[in-house]
């Protein structure tokens, strides 16, 4: 294997250039003031104090977390039954339905989100259908509903695939044993299937919550300029205001929040199979 060790060097260089160096730059910018040159740095916590002392930014952070949590909960509630039905179906149809779920992800997320603009706008497809039924039109664009719908549509495949993977790998003998012990279908699901599928649910929560809390183009397209989430604030600081120091500080705050959420998810992710055997 030593002869192949040199093959990892290009990946190490790529990782250093594309990941480590940018993160170090964000860390440096976050703890320095604007106007530094190469030779002198003025370290300060001013950027963080500015964020936590401004009620507007805190309100945006709160709104972003709420939207991400709502999106994640909806994805769990919708994704679990879909994954369960697919995993319980015949083998021949499983690949077809998995393909149908993953097929939209082959298209760029920005293009898919633009499609919802045409569906939700005042003279769009949905309002046209409502008009044929004699109801509406309804204001759907530039609302919380539109933003949550766009996020759920874009991120729910990640939830379904993770849960389906856990359900597909589940040992069916546990269900047979539960049935032999007198458990009905509901009891078997609650005591066997659900605990064994929790690792997939938690992985799906991670894959949905993380991009949802930092998304910026979905609220920008479907929420309009007046609907701002924390990702939009970061984008504005870097591309419009040119305040890279403050933008880096917000990015670092979001990185800490994401790491905390990942830690909590990992903390909850126990070994349900072992617990089931102990019971």
Automatic annotation (TrEMBL):
Pfam assignment, any one: BPD_transp_1
SUPFAM superfamilies linked: MetI-like
Transmembrane segments: 12-31, 65-87, 96-120, 140-161, 196-218, 246-264
Keywords per UniProt: Cell membrane, Membrane, Transmembrane, Transmembrane helix, Transport
Annotated ranges, domain ABC transmembrane type-1: 61-265
Bilayer topology annotation: Multi-pass membrane protein
PROSITE patterns in the record: ABC_TM1
Superkingdom, natural source: Bacteria
Keyword Zinc-finger: no
Subcellular location: Cell membrane
Protein family (similarity comment): Belongs to the binding-protein-dependent transport system permease family. CysTW subfamily.
PANTHER family from the UniProt entry: INNER MEMBRANE ABC TRANSPORTER PERMEASE PROTEIN YDCU-RELATED, INNER MEMBRANE ABC TRANSPORTER PERMEASE PROTEIN YDCU-RELATED-RELATED
Name of the protein this chain belongs to: ABC transporter permease
The organism of origin for this protein: Anaerotignum lactatifermentans
